[in-house]
């Protein structure tokens, strides 16, 4: 297995075509095909399968690509550090539950490293997909929370995926509502105050169990439930139908506007919010910068009194 072969594999994955990948890396298509075939034979796996719609990545290939990306990116960093060679593109991916501070840290990353060519990804996605993304190295960092209800299940899943959880803060639950909500202006709310309002939550696909829910207290029976897939829709429904959701209380007015309010929820619960990384892969320079930025934004919310490290 050679670094060149890894670069060939990544080129095919990015282009979705052997012919386009060959043009990208400046070799003939037969040479590229033979090189990847030799790699597959050496490893005893099939990385790509051909269909009438083009090239598809196999499940084995999907896992292999995560490791290949890490190797190529680390070599690029070494070349840049010791030989002064600039890599063609800087790459970084993060997968997260819907946390504003995760987006704020991503903005910092782009401002710091996005001057020239780059390929950055932020996935606000389902909880189980966050685990899979980091396990398969599609993302370098993941963000989610633990609490007394889901901790046993998620800790087991983290262990099975060879992932480590690092706590950033322990936050008190809040509700997000629109500024026109009848609940606006209260210092806190009780669950009984929410009974007549639509409850908004993020849909979790085939892993739509309470343990993988992004919201606290999802196991409670509610009369009015709406599940959504993206943050913009959820916020629009908060405003439009006086809905509510339960979260950490950390929200950025700069990114999300001034018409979403965060009010403490009077319950005996907590959110241990943290980031996850692969046990066997240390974060690269961009990953370390992103994690440092997460800490900075958490401290800013702590200074505002939103995160008070309730235990």
Could you describe the 3D structure shown?
The chain is of the alpha/beta class. Among the domains are: 1-81, Winged helix-like DNA-binding domain superfamily/Winged helix DNA-binding domain (Arc Repressor Mutant, subunit A, Orthogonal Bundle); 170-272, Periplasmic binding protein-like II (D-Maltodextrin-Binding Protein, domain 2, 3-Layer(aba) Sandwich), CATH 3.40.190. Helices cover 41% and strands 21% of the residues. The protein has ten helices and twelve strands. The protein has helices spanning 3-15, 18-25, 29-43, 59-83, 100-113, 127-135, 151-160, 231-241, 253-256, 285-303, and strands at residues 48-51, 54-57, 90-96, 118-124, 141-146, 163-171, 174-178, 199-202, 225-228, 245-247, 260-264, 271-278. It has a five-stranded mixed beta sheet, sandwiched between helices. Strands 10-7-11 form a three-stranded antiparallel beta sheet. The longest helix has 25 residues, at 59-83. It is elongated, with a radius of gyration of 22 Å. 34% of the residues are buried. The model has no long low-confidence stretch (mean pLDDT 87).
Q: How many separate helices? A: 10
| CATH-derived topology of the domain at 170-272 | D-Maltodextrin-Binding Protein, domain 2
Report how far the terminal alpha carbons are from each other.
Answer: 49 Å
Average residue-wise pLDDT: 87
Give, in spatial order, the strands making up the sheet with the most strands.
4-3-5-12-6
Instruction: Supply Rg.
Output: 22 Å
Task: Tag the structure with descriptive keywords.
10 helices, Arc Repressor Mutant, subunit A, 311 residues, D-Maltodextrin-Binding Protein, domain 2, 41% helix
